[in-house]
Automatic annotation (TrEMBL):
SUPFAM superfamilies: Cytochrome P450. Keywords: Heme, Iron, Metal-binding, Monooxygenase, Oxidoreductase, Signal. Its cofactor is heme. It comes from the Eukaryota. The keyword Zinc does not apply. The lineage of its organism: Eukaryota, Fungi, Dikarya, Ascomycota, Pezizomycotina. Heme binds at C523. One of its GO terms (molecular function) is monooxygenase activity. Gene3D superfamilies: Cytochrome P450. This is Cytochrome P450.
Length: 616
C-alpha cells in the first residue's frame, strides 16, 4: 500500500513538469506534526547537505518563518511536496497565483482543509459551487460603500475607546501610558467591537464605558456574563478561538469531563458562545416576524435571517439555523482576527521603526491637522489616507505579515487543467492541491522592487518592514508579466470592486500581493478591513507616538538620566527583541505571537523618550 501510494503520487507530480521532492511522510500528517520535536534534532545530526532545504516544508509555519529559502533551494517558484499520504503543489509565482485565483471553476477552494472553521456548520468561507454562491449571495449585499462609511466612523470611535482604556480614563492627562502588555488582546477587542457593531448592531464596550440602554443589546455587550450565562459574549468567543483545535478534535461530551483546565475552558466557551448565538438568532427571527425594518449598519444576522425567515426568502434553498449561526461566526471571526493582527503588528512596527512613524505623523498632520476625529469624514479622507504613509504602513504589514498564511485550492475534480508560466504550459492533474503561499510571494524579489537591507545587510530588504517601498517604481520586468492580463470572468460576486492599493502607490503585479486572496473567492471584507485600519491609525498618531517599552533593560529613572547615545543603544536592544519576536510569529487560523508579546507605551507627541530622535 505505502509503496503503491507513493508511486502514484510521484507519477502525478511528474506530470506537472514542476520540480518535486519526495518525503517518507507528508509534512502535515498528524503523526509527524505531533512527533516532529523528536525527529528534527536527530535529522539535524546528519550531514547538512542531506537535509538542508529539503527539510523546510516539514517545519511548522515554514511559509512565514523561512522566507524564500525553500523555493530558492528548489530553484523554482512552484514546487511539489510528495508523500505517500498527500501531495501538495506550493507556489509563490504571481503568474500561477493569478491564474489559480481567477479561474474559480478550474481551481476551487480545497474545502476539505477548512474543518477548523466549519465546526458550527457550513458557511461562506467553507463551501464551494452552487452552495457557496447561495451563502455568498446572502452575505455579500451588505458589503457596500455605505457600510464602509459607517465602519470608518465606528473605527474612529473604538480607537478612542482603546486610547482611553490605555490611559486609564481620567488619568488621561499623563504624558505616557503605563507599559502596555496587552496589545494583542486590546487590538482584538478593538476589532471585535467594530465588527460587532457595524456587522451585527451589537454594542460591545471597553472597561469603564457605559452599557447601551436597550436590555437586549446590553446582554451581548456587557463585560460580565449575561444572566443565564457563565461568560460574556466577548470572552466566550476568545475562549473558542484559544482552544479551537481541541474543540474541533475532542467531542464536546468528552471535553466536558476531561480533568484539564484547557478542556474545561474550551468546553464552557463553546457552550456560552453557542447559546449567545442561538439567542441572538431567535431575537432576529422575532424582529423579522414582527416586520421590523433593517437596522443601520450591515445587520448581517438580520440579512441571514430574512433570507430564510422573511416574507420573500432571497434564495431558493434556505439556510438552516446552523448555517445562519455558522455564517455569523465566520463573519465575526474573519471580520476581527485578521484586522486585529494587522493593527497589532502595524503598531509594533511603527514603534520599532521610528523614522517611518515620524513620516506617518507628518502625513496625518498634513491631511487632518488638529481637527477633532469626530468631524472626520469617510468620503473626504479615505482615499487620501490610503495614498499616504498610513496606507503604505498598512500595506507593508500585510505584505510582511499576511494574517492568512496559506490559501489552499484544488484542481477541479471534473478535469485536468493547465497553467502557463515563464512561457511553459504545465498540466495540473485533477484533484491536486495547490497551496498559495502569500508570505513567500510577498517577498519574492522577482515581483517586488528591492534594495540591500539596511537592517540585516542581506542583498534584499524584502524581509524588512519598509513602508517607503510603496513609493518605489513598479518593477519593469514584473510589469510585463502574464499575471497582468485581464483574467476576470466578468461575473458579479458582490463586495468591493476596486483595488486594495491606492493608485498613487506602488502597484504590485497581479498575484504578487494577495493578503485578501484574489478573484471570485477573495475576501468579502477587504474594503471594511482597510477602512478600519486607515481610520484608526490617524486617531492614535495625531496626538501620540508609540514606543517600545524598555523596562526589561532599564528603569524610568535610569532612562531619564541617560544621554542621547545611551538611549539609542538601549532602544536598539528593544528593536532587536521586537524584530525577533515578530519573526517567530505562528499561524493558527491567523498569524499571531502565540504567548509572546512586545510591550509598548503610548506617549503624547512632544514627550517621546526615544522615537523623536532623528538618529533613530
Ligand atoms: C486585514 C484583514 C483581512 C484579511 C487579511 C483577510 C483575508 C482573507 C483571505 C485571504 C480570504 C480568502 C480565504 C481563503 O481562500 O480561504 C478571506 C475570505 C473572506 N473574508 Fe477576509 N480578511 C480580512 C478581513 C475581513 C473582514 C473585516 C471580513 C468581514 C467583515 C472578512 C470576511 C471574509 C469572508 C466572508 C471571506 C470568504 C469569502 C468567500 O469565500 O466568498 N474578512 N479573507
Amino acid at each position: 500500500g505505502y509503496i503503491t501510494a507513493l508511486r502514484r503520487n510521484i507519477a502525478i507530480a511528474r506530470k506537472t513538469g514542476f520540480p518535486y521532492y519526495v518525503y517518507p511522510i507528508y509534512p502535515m500528517n498528524v503523526i509527524w506534526q505531533l512527533t516532529s520535536g523528536i525527529w528534527l534534532p536527530i535529522i539535524q545530526c546528519l550531514p547538512k547537505s542531506w537535509w538542508e532545504g529539503r527539510i523546510i516544508p516539514m517545519l511548522r509555519d515554514w511559509s512565514y518563518t523561512t522566507n524564500q529559502a525553500f523555493f530558492d533551494w528548489a530553484g523554482s517558484e512552484t514546487v511539489l511536496v510528495v508523500g505517500p499520504d498527500d501531495i501538495v503543489c506550493h507556489t509563490q509565482s504571481a503568474d500561477v497565483i493569478s491564474q489559480v485565483t481567477t479561474r474559480r471553476e478550474a481551481f476551487p477552494k480545497d474545502i476539505a482543509r477548512y474543518s477548523l472553521i466549519s465546526m458550527f456548520g457550513q458557511n461562506v468561507v467553507t463551501t464551494e459551487g452552487p452552495i457557496w454562491r447561495m451563502h455568498r449571495k446572502v452575505t455579500a449585499s451588505s458589503f457596500n460603500e455605505k457600510n464602509a462609511a459607517h465602519t470608518y466612523l465606528e473605527a474612529i470611535d473604538q480607537t478612542r475607546g482603546m486610547l482611553s482604556h490605555w490611559f486609564g480614563g481620567e488619568k488621561r492627562d499623563n504624558d505616557s501610558s503605563e507599559t502596555i502588555l496587552t496589545l494583542e488582546h486590546d487590538t482584538m477587542r478593538w476589532a471585535l467591537n467594530i465588527i460587532g457593531y457595524i456587522g451585527f448592531g451589537l454594542r460591545l464596550i471597553w472597561p469603564g464605558q457605559k452599557l447601551p440602554d436597550d436590555p437586549i443589546l446590553a446582554k451581548y455587550g456587557q463585560l460580565e456574563p449575561a444572566p443565564g450565562y457563565t461568560m460574556s459574549l466577548a470572552s466566550s468567543l476568545a475562549g473558542v478561538m484559544d482552544h479551537i483545535v481541541a474543540i474541533l478534535l475532542i467531542p464536546a461530551p468528552v471535553m466536558k469531563y476531561l480533568p484539564f483546565q484547557f478542556a474545561k475552558h474550551g468546553y464552557t466557551s463553546r457552550e456560552n458562545w453557542q447559546k449567545y448565538m442561538r439567542d441572538f438568532l431567535n431575537d432576529k427571527i422575532g424582529e423579522v416576524r414582527r416586520g421590523e425594518r433593517e437596522r443601520v449598519g450591515m445587520d448581517i444576522m438580520g440579512g441571514l435571517v430574512r433570507s430564510a425567515y422573511g416574507e420573500k426568502p432571497t434564495t431558493t434553498v434556505k439556510l438552516t439555523d446552523d448555517e445562519i449561526i455558522s455564517n455569523a461566526f465566520i463573519m465575526i471571526l474573519a471580520g476581527h482576527e485578521t484586522t486585529a493582527n494587522v493593527m497589532h503588528f502595524t503598531l509594533i512596527q511603527l514603534a520599532t521603526n521610528p523614522a517611518a512613524q515620524r513620516r506617518l505623523q507628518q502625513d496625518v498632520d498634513a491631511l487632518l491637522g488638529d481637527t477633532d476625529p469626530s468631524t472626520w469624514e469617510y468620503e473626504s479622507h479615505v482615499n487620501a489616507l490610503l495614498a499616504s504613509h498610513v496606507g503604505a504602513a498598512v500595506n507593508e504589514t500585510m505584505r510582511t505579515m499576511p494574517p492568512v498564511t496559506t490559501i489552499p485550492k484544488i484542481v477541479s475534480a471534473s478535469a485536468d487543467q493547465t497553467i502557463t508560466t515563464n512561457g511553459v504550459t504545465h498540466l495540473m492533474p485533477s484533484g491536486l492541491t495547490i497551496n498559495i503561499v502569500p508570505a513567500s510571494v510577498h517577498r519574492n524579489p522577482r515581483w517586488w522592487p528591492t534594495r540591500p537591507s539596511e537592517i540585516t545587510g542581506k542583498p534584499t530588504d524584502l524581509e524588512d518592514w519598509v513602508p517607503e517601498r510603496w513609493y518605489r517604481e513598479t518593477n519593469r520586468d514584473a510589469a510585463t508579466s502574464t499575471a497582468n492580463a485581464d483574467l476576470d470572468d466578468g461575473d458579479d460576486y458582490g463586495g468591493f470592486k476596486g483595488s486594495d492599493v491606492s493608485a498613487s502607490l506602488f502597484r504590485p503585479v497581479r498575484g504578487s500581493f494577495i493578503p485578501f486572496s484574489d478573484g471570485p473567492r477573495s475576501c468579502l471584507g477587504r474594503r471594511i478591513a482597510v477602512v478600519e485600519l486607515v481610520a484608526a491609525l490617524p486617531v492614535i498618531f495625531q496626538r501620540y507616538s508609540i514606543e517600545l517599552a524598555v523596562d526589561e533593560w532599564a528603569t524610568d529613572d535610569e532612562v531619564d538620566r541617560m544621554g542621547a547615545e545611551e538611549r539609542r543603544r538601549l532602544y536598539a536592544k528593544a528593536q532587536k527583541s521586537a524584530r525577533d519576536t515578530l519573526s517567530a510569529a505562528a499561524s493558527i487560523v491567523t498569524l499571531k505571537l502565540r504567548g509572546q508579546r512586545v510591550p509598548v507605551r503610548l506617549v503624547k507627541r512632544g514627550k517621546e523618550r526615544f522615537v523623536a530622535d532623528p538618529e533613530l
